[in-house]
């Protein structure tokens, strides 16, 4: 069924509500993030809301923080039919592909559910250090079922996707808390083993591995906000926020909201994204990838059964891109 959906998408024309302008594409590549206003029809925001609520009421082994101020689910589209529909049939893949000017493959997704009341903040971090992937064409698409003013939505450090530095994720066990187990993990990594295995899809936490002491710690961005060029946006349902997989980002909180902040983040890979076994891995590989035992440097395109092309440029998409260039100009 998934392959059939992909073929239909590849054969069909664009289903964007509007074109992505050249200025928006330029801003993404320069800044590492861009908010695209009014990209999804309300039918898709209804699908999003239904998928998030289904996931909330049907936790599985990849759910963290159930009934807590911050609930995070990994790979929710694998069991939420509506989120699967959003990922594989909505315009999101096309939006990412148009911005990259390249075919894109779906890598994984997450749900971030913050109930109404005092909104819990999310810590500053980079996404790439959590996953066994590497590449410049790694893009998050963040969509929310609810209005999210800047003080509860995503913020990024402008341009940090180009810093050429990978920071240690702020999750995992302290190696000093269990030196023997940490030493075994280091040996496993040296022996070429994947540190978080297929079994994690049955029961996973952010503390399934140890912090990587070889990576530098994150700078204190929140404590020194005036020293960083921080971008943020007021988000409305139907908008699509894109940000680079390597950019430093967070979500603010500490304010009262009368409604929940229910968000979905999908991760997309362009042609240059390859497999890279990381010592800092905190999220399992997509479950189907384990059977292939990938080697470092293999492109995700080497595993089409796991990562089929979700969207690729067509003559229609190219024409829309050219029209956007004429209409939008470049900043």
Using brief descriptors, characterize the structure shown.
8-stranded antiparallel β-sheet, disordered C terminus, Jelly Rolls, 7 helices, 331 residues, 20% strand, disordered N terminus, alpha+beta, 16 strands, 4-stranded antiparallel β-sheet
Polypeptide structure, described:
The protein has about 325 residues and is α+β, with helices and mostly antiparallel strands. The protein is built from seven helices and 16 strands. Strand 2 (about 65) and strand 3 form a beta hairpin. The termini are far apart. Residues about 1-15 and about 315-330 have low confidence and may be disordered. It has a single domain, classed as Jelly Rolls (Sandwich), CATH 2.60.120.620. The radius of gyration is 19 Å and the shape is globular.
SSE map:
Elements: H1 2-11, H2 22-31, E1 33-36, H3 42-57, E2 63-64, E3 71-74, H4 81-89, H5 92-100, E4 104-114, E5 117-118, E6 122-125, E7 133-134, E8 138-144, E9 154-157, H6 179-190, E10 230-232, E11 240-244, E12 249-251, E13 256-257, E14 261-269, E15 274-275, E16 309-311, H7 315-328
Antiparallel strand pairs: 1-11, 2-3, 3-4, 4-14, 4-16, 5-13, 6-12, 7-15, 8-11, 8-14, 9-10, 9-12
Helix pairs in contact: 3-4
Outline:
This protein is an alpha+beta fold and 331 residues long. It is 24% helix and 20% strand.
């Amino acid at each position: 069924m998934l392959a059939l959906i992909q073929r239909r998408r590849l054969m069909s024309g664009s289903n964007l509500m509007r074109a992505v302008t050249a200025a928006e594409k330029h801003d993404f590549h320069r800044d590492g993030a861009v908010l695209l206003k009014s990209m999804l029809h309300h039918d898709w925001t209804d699908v999003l809301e239904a998928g998030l609520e289904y996931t909330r009421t049907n936790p599985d082994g990849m759910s963290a923080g159930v009934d807590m101020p911050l609930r995070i689910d990994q790979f929710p589209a694998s069991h939420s039919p509506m989120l699967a529909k959003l990922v594989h049939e909505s315009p999101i893949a096309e939006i990412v592909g148009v911005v990259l000017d390249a075919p894109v493959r779906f890598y994984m997704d997450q749900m971030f559910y913050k109930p109404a009341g005092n909104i819990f903040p999310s810590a500053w971090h980079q996404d790439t250090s959590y996953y066994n992937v590497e590449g410049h064409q790694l893009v998050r698409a963040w969509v929310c079922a609810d209005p999210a003013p800047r003080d509860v939505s995503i913020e990024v450090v402008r341009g940090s996707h180009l810093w050429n530095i990978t920071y240690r994720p702020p999750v995992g066990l302290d190696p000093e808390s269990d030196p023997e187990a940490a030493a075994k993990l280091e040996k496993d990594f040296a022996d070429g083993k994947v540190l978080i295995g297929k079994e994690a899809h049955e029961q996973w936490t952010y503390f399934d591995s140890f912090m990587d002491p070889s990576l530098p710690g994150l700078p204190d961005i929140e404590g020194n906000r005036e020293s960083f060029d921080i971008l943020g946006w007021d988000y409305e349902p139907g908008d699509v926020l894109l940000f680079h997989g390597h950019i430093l980002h967070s979500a603010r909180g500490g304010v009262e909201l009368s409604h929940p902040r229910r968000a979905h983040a999908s991760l997309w890979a362009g042609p240059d994204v390859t497999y890279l076994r990381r010592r800092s891995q905190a999220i399992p590989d997509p479950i189907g990838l384990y059977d292939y035992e990938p080697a470092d440097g293999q492109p995700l395109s080497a595993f089409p059964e796991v990562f089929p092309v979700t969207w690729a440029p067509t003559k229609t998409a190219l024409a829309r891109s050219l029209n956007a260039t004429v209409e939008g100009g470049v900043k």
